């Protein structure tokens, strides 16, 4: 499921040489239970996780979960007043998880009682940023885990950092670039929050290293469909968890295939496993993913079911090295192509074209051709030998 919400942090930062005695204050907002637009299960769970994480590293946290606009606005104003009383050098975190959209007014943060196509209340992102930018002596970090689309709501994706007037002494991070999609994740939390909540507790990591690690982790977890970005006007370094680096803070080699497998291994969605096989064709969990895929396909395609294409294909290889290929990983017992294709076949061309014409969604390509009664001429490699098959 594509994640359709925004996560924002506003953090007044402190250097590593400053003591934890400095005030560390956080406001955490999570909007999940929308009434008139899509609900966002992970927005609330991500907010709760980050609130708990911040408490664990010394922040006083105000958690505002699923509040309608009037209550949200009131509590937010109270939080802004509290933040204005923080002494210089304190740390302030503002975290928002929920729907957002950009239109001619600006970037809007939508409360749970937002009603599309009507004059409805909202928070204006730029105003929120400015409200927390009252002091140049307080370092700020704004982090936006941005959504891309909302059904029935007019507008565009939120404008990214190059369109903002950066407040002095600030750090601005987005969970994805302007052309990307923020993934909601298979489990309780998004890939972005799963990584961020782990990185901020690692002692001695400066903020740039934290977000470099998050970017790397999210890119691998989403097969480079999501690429976090950052920009900074900070005057000094900030550490979420000041202190001497321990073994957990040292550079580490992340087993991305294992991390992804642990997230999906109990999923009942077949495409989760074809996705894993596409990402890690040489990974140690490829065969387990294939086995789980076959079991799910067998369960959902009984022999009594009307015959159809019922083929699963995966794209493997490296586009940079020019060796991408489509591999047949499953052909259902009742598939119309059961006598044409075999598991392990490598498709070279289809209907006189290379794989570029259908590699984005190869399985859907075959299904659509079948539904439209198109002739299929498939050139393939089987056991190292060239061959061709046709279906009318």
Molecular structure report:
GO terms for molecular function: cysteine-type endopeptidase activity; serine-type endopeptidase activity. Belongs to the peptidase C14A family. This protein has 392 residues and is α+β, with helices and mostly antiparallel strands. The protein has three domains: 6-254, 3-Layer(aba) Sandwich (Rossmann fold); 266-300, no CATH class; 305-392, PDZ domain (Pdz3 Domain, Roll). Helix content is 27%, strand content 21%. The strands form three sheets. It has a seven-stranded mixed β-sheet with strand order 3-2-4-1-8-9-10, sandwiched between helices. The chain has a five-stranded antiparallel β-sheet with strand order 11-12-13-14-15. Strands 5-6-7 form a three-stranded antiparallel β-sheet. A hairpin with a 2-residue loop joins strand 14 (376-382) and strand 15. It is elongated, with a radius of gyration of 24 Å. Mean pLDDT is 76; it is low at 12-21 and 302-307.
> Helix count?
9
Question: In CATH terms, what is the fold-level topology of the largest domain?
Answer: Rossmann fold
Order of helices and strands: EEHEHEEEEHEEHHEHHHEEEHEE
Largest beta-sheet details: 7 strands, mixed
What is the CA-CA span between the terminal residues? 35 Å
Total tally of structural domains = 3
State the assembly state of the protein chains: single chain
Measured by DSSP, the beta-strand proportion falls in 15-25%
Low-confidence stretches: 12-21, 302-307
Q: What number is the mean pLDDT?
A: 76
Strands of the widest sheet, in order across it, are 3-2-4-1-8-9-10
How many β strands by DSSP? 15
What is the 3D shape?
elongated
The CATH class of the largest domain = Alpha Beta
Cα-atom radius of gyration: 24 Å
The CATH architecture name of the largest domain reads 3-Layer(aba) Sandwich
Helix percent reads: 25-40%
Structural class, from helix and strand content?
A: alpha+beta
Organism: Pseudoteredinibacter isoporae
Protein name: Carboxyl-terminal processing protease
Pfam families: Peptidase_C14 (PF00656)
GO molecular function: cysteine-type endopeptidase activity; serine-type endopeptidase activity
């Amino acid at each position: 499921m594509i994640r359709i919400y925004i996560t924002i942090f506003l953090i007044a930062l402190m250097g590593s040489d400053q003591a934890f005695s400095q005030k560390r204050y956080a406001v955490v907002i999570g909007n999940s239970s929308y009434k008139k637009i899509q609900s966002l299960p992970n927005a609330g769970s991500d907010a709760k996780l980050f609130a708990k994480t911040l408490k664990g590293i010394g922040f006083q946290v105000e958690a505002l979960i699923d509040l309608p606009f009037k209550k949200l606005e009131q509590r937010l104003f109270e939080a802004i007043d509290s933040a204005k009383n923080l002494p210089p050098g304190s740390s302030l975190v503002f975290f928002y998880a929920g729907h957002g959209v950009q239109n001619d007014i600006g970037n809007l943060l939508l409360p749970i009682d937002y009603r599309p196509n009507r004059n409805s209340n909202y928070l204006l992102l730029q105003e929120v940023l400015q409200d927390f930018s009252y002091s140049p002596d307080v370092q700020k970090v704004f982090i936006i885990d941005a959504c891309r689309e909302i059904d029935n709501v007019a507008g565009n994706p939120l404008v990214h950092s190059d369109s903002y007037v950066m407040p002095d002494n600030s750090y601005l991070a987005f969970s994805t670039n302007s052309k990307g999609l923020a993934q909601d994740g298979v489990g309780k939390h998004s890939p972005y929050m799963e990584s961020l909540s782990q990185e901020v507790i690692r002692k001695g990591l400066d903020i740039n290293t934290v977000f470099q690690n998050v970017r790397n982790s999210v890119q691998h977890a989403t097969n480079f469909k999501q690429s976090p970005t950052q920009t900074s006007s900070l005057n000094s370094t900030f550490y979420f968890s000041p202190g001497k680096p321990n073994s957990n803070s040292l550079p580490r080699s992340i087993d991305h295939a294992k991390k992804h497998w642990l997230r999906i291994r109990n999923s009942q969605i077949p495409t989760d496993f074809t996705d894993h096989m596409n990402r890690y064709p040489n990974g140690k969990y490829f065969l387990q993913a294939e086995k789980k895929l076959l079991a799910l396909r067998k369960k959902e395609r009984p022999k009594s079911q009307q015959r159809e294409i019922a083929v699963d294909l995966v794209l493997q290889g490296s586009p940079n090295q020019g060796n991408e290929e489509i591999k047949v990983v499953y052909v259902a017992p009742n598939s119309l192509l059961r006598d044409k294709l075999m598991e392990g076949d490598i498709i070279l061309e289809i209907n006189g074209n290379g794989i570029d014409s259908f590699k984005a969604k190869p399985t859907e390509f075959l299904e659509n051709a079948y539904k439209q009664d198109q002739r299929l001429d498939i050139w393939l490699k089987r056991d190292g030998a060239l061959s061709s098959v046709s279906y009318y």
